[in-house]
Amino acid sequence: MSDSPAILIDSVSHKYSERVALDQLSFDVRAGEIFGLLGPNGGGKTTLFKLLSTLMPVQSGQLSIVGFDVTKQADDVRQSIGVTFQSPSVDIKLTVRENIVYQGRLYGLSGTDLRKRVAAQMERFQISDRANDLVQTLSGGLKRRVEIAKSLLHNPRVLLLDEPSTGLDPGARFDLWQALQTLRAESGVTVLVTTHLMEEAEKCDRLVILDHGKLAAMGTPDELRSKIGGDCITIQAFDSARAASLSQKITSTLQITPQLFETQLRIEAPEGAELVHRLTREFSPEIRSITLGKPTLEDVFIRATGHRFWDEGKA
Amino acid sequence: MSQNTTQSPRPGFMARYGLPISMLVEREFVRFFRQRSRVVGALAQPVIFWVLFGAGLSGSFRMAAASGGSVSFQEYFLPGAALMIVLFTSIFSSISVIQDRNEGFLQGVLAAPVPRVSLVLGKLFGGASLALVQALLFLWSAPLLQYIGLAPEMPLGFSIGQTLAMIGVLFLTGLGMAGLGFLFAWKIDSVQGFHGIMSVLLMPMWLLSGAFFPPGGSKWLSWVVAVNPLSYGLSALRHVIGRSDAAVGLPSLPVSLAVSLGFAVLCVALGVRMTRRPSTI
User: Fold this and answer.
1) Option in A93, A106, A186 nearest B109 (CB)
2) Over 50: is that where the pLDDT of B2 sits?
3) Fewer CB within 10 A of the end CB, N or C, for chain B?
4) Chain A: residue whose CA lies nearest to B275
5) Distance, CA of B198 to CA of A271 (rounded, Å)
6) Burial class (CB in 10 A: 0-12, 13-18, 19+), B2
7) How many CB contacts within 8 angstroms connect chain A with chain B?
8) Rounded to whole angstroms, what are the CA distances from B51 to A128, A171, A180, B44, B152?
9) pLDDT tens digits along B71-120
10) What are residue B186's phi and psi, to 5 degrees?
11) Which of A72-81, A199-208, B37-46, B261-270 has the lowest mean pLDDT?
12) How far apart are CA B194 and CA B197, in angstroms?
């Protein structure tokens, strides 16, 4: 058991009528990892999430969780996973305690065992003092904590979270990640989290970048960044026509081919500072702004997919 | 800390059926009583209908005279009003499956290791029990209105045997109606859409069940009444309540019960089949 992956995804494809949502996707998640699924909305994250949480039938390929096949052993899979959906599955007309207790009964828990587990989870997520409040009176961050507390009640080995920080303020987001890290450290739960936020992706042990249903890149955040190497320069031009002509000029004078995104040019260079100097000296009337930075995961994304993170459906 | 990597033991019968079903039923009750407007509406509306229609139509109601009995319209309408409670309460509770889906609760249930039959039965038993409790309350208390002049004189109270039989009939009818509502609700994505179906299908179903006026009249009308499953729930209720001769010309009690049971079983079975079919939630 020790080395077998917690989640295995093997050449999985999925289509909604003609639209391809997942295209021959394969990767695996090791036991005890916090694993990120990064990609723009519509990139296939939610589809994959629904397949893993057994809410949608698998069309082709194989998915298994802690060794159980998602199609053939759906009940074992369901018993092994805790799921936190993007749209919360808490019932806002019920109290915090009722929500968690009811969840327990769905998983066949009852009596003292259930009471103990409910108390322990409420303690862990610091919601005990709100136990008797209706969930509709809770803030977004607290609701999310109830949601996670609920999904951990049956001691799942894998926790699946779909965009868990949707609607959370930065403070609540920070707390959430703190809680996930503690959880992993204490109980060795494997965590798979989908996100479209770069700063969340940074906190994962490893991540994959999904783009148009394909695996665009995979590795630790550091590995992914180091693939780019050097620095990233971003130039903002005045309009797209002038951006295009600037790009050509740069190519002809400096023998560098920038990537062009409408009004923006992007250049990867080993010695960024020096290049910025040359660019500003030679082309300053054409440059609205120029920034120099170490590569971010967004740069990784651009490199891997050839388009910007938010260029949905345009590539 | 209760967290560890060992998995919970494989669930048994109670865990797979008993606990989830009872949870869903309890939730239906908790949610219902927490929404005060629903409680008031569900209890007051049939009483108002019963009193107003009873008073307004008492003059034009001829059945009593024709069959030589002495049933006032309000007494005739009593089981019909109770049936209205059953119909609306159980249907409304199945609509809540739309809400459960839109609010996200449903996906939590679908991702749990719970057989689909538990989900369907939990939801439908919840609606039917809720309907049963309200209809019983109504049947017990409405005749009391005669003491303040809002109802004509009629017998009060029911024997224990009658009460048990009423419980059976009301629950069975409620289950069938909740099941029918569930079949629609599962396929429809908004509560508004459901209201459309309700006004073209469910209201006429109630009106044409014999709840409001005795079947008969035109040929096509009696056919509609005969194929309407709700007619049999009503007829069973009339037999069970056993008041005067309002049950004259209705299907017999065994036939009424058999049809009601058959309809409930059919709806539950179709509901289970539908939820097993994978869908995109």
Assistant:
1) A106
2) no
3) N
4) A55
5) 70
6) middle
7) 121
8) 49, 58, 60, 11, 10
9) 778 888 888 889 988 998 898 888 889 888 888 899 999 999 999 999 99
10) -65, -30
11) B37-46
12) 5
Say how far apart CA B192 and CA A279 lie, in whole Å: 60
Is the Cβ of B108 closer than 8 Å to some Cβ of chain A?
Answer: yes
Residue type, B199: S
**H helix or E strand, kind and range, residue A297:** helix A297-305
Which residues in chain B have Cβ-Cβ distances shorter than 8 Å to A189? 3, 5
**Within 10 Å of residue A24's Cβ, how many Cβ atoms?**
14
A62-81 burial: b if 16+ Cβ within 10 Å, else e: ebbbbebebeebebbbbbbb
Q: Which residue has 């059919």 as its token pair?
A: B266
pLDDT by residue (tens digit) across B184-219? 888 888 888 888 877 788 888 888 888 777 766 678
Q: Bigger pLDDT: A123 or B220?
A: A123
**DSSP SS3 for B93:** helix
Q: Which residue has the higher pLDDT, B279 or B100?
A: B100
Contact B143, B155 (CB under 8 A): yes
Q: Is the C-alpha dihedral spanning B165, B166, B172, B173 positive or negative?
A: positive
B263 sits in the region (left: phi over 0; alpha: psi -120 to 50; else beta) called alpha
Contact of A243 with A265, CB cutoff 8 Å: yes
Q: Which residues contact A195 (CB under 8 A, 6 or more apart)?
A: A36, A37, A38, A163, A164, A165, A201
**DSSP state for residue A271 in the 8-state scheme:** S
Euclidean distance between CA atoms B76 and B55, whole angstroms: 12
What are the tokens at B155? 């017998």
